[in-house]
Amino acid sequence: MLFIVLCVAEITVKCVPENVCTKILRINLSFLYKFLTWLVLLTVRKGRKMLLQSKTLREGDAISQQHTAQGGNISPPFSWTNMPRHTISLALILADVDAPMEKRFHWGLCNIPPMTDELPKNLDDSFRLPDGIIQVVNDMGRTGYYGPGFPSGKHRYIFRLFALDKQLELSRMNTCSDMLKMIKGHILAFDTITVHHTQGTGLTLSF
Questions:
Q1: pTM (two decimals)
Q2: What is the gyration radius of the CA atoms in the chain, in angstroms?
Q3: How many domains does the chain have?
Q4: Could you list the pLDDT tens digit for every one of the 207 residues in the chain?
Q5: Is residue 202 a part of any domain in this protein?
Q6: Do 122 and 152 belong to one domain?
Q7: Would you say residue 186 lies in a domain?
Q8: Judging by DSSP bridges, how do beta strands 105-112 and 118-119 pair with one another?
């Protein structure tokens, strides 16, 4: 409302004869107008949604064969933007939302530095990656990425990136489920890419 009032006042001042008082008022109104414009733009910029993207994954599409267990079992590349201001670390999970609970989680990473804005493809299966990134044990009993590959039916897979307000203390024995328990109450924002691989229907993952 104040923004609209200032706009109307500035137009009104321009319509009256010029003198010292109106000149000073015009300068002040111009300054306030620019300041409020900057403030609105800053607020919009801060409110932008966190965005997760991948060069090899498209929302709603079938996952590329190179990322499946039967294919190359290569982890996809990712990039992201619009991290919340107080992000301390990032975590990433890959879940089969149509699998039984004991075989749901295919990949989990945490302690991704907030200044990092991408993750390369084909990460190895090490517990500790460069930059302090940690990979936890998936539901197949392995550390690192395990691509989609359920025996039958069509399954949905979600890649979800979390912005967190803390770093996680995890050991080589910790699982994806352990990681998800630890991040509850510390999630600042998240974004998801959902893909499918021909293999049921059923369960829904929610945070």
A1: 0.73
A2: 24
A3: 2
A4: 544 444 444 545 455 555 655 555 454 545 444 443 333 333 333 446 999 999 999 999 999 999 999 889 999 999 999 999 999 999 999 999 998 888 899 999 999 999 999 999 999 999 999 999 999 999 999 999 999 987 778 899 999 999 999 999 999 999 999 999 999 999 999 999 999 998 533 343 444
A5: no
A6: yes
A7: yes
A8: unpaired
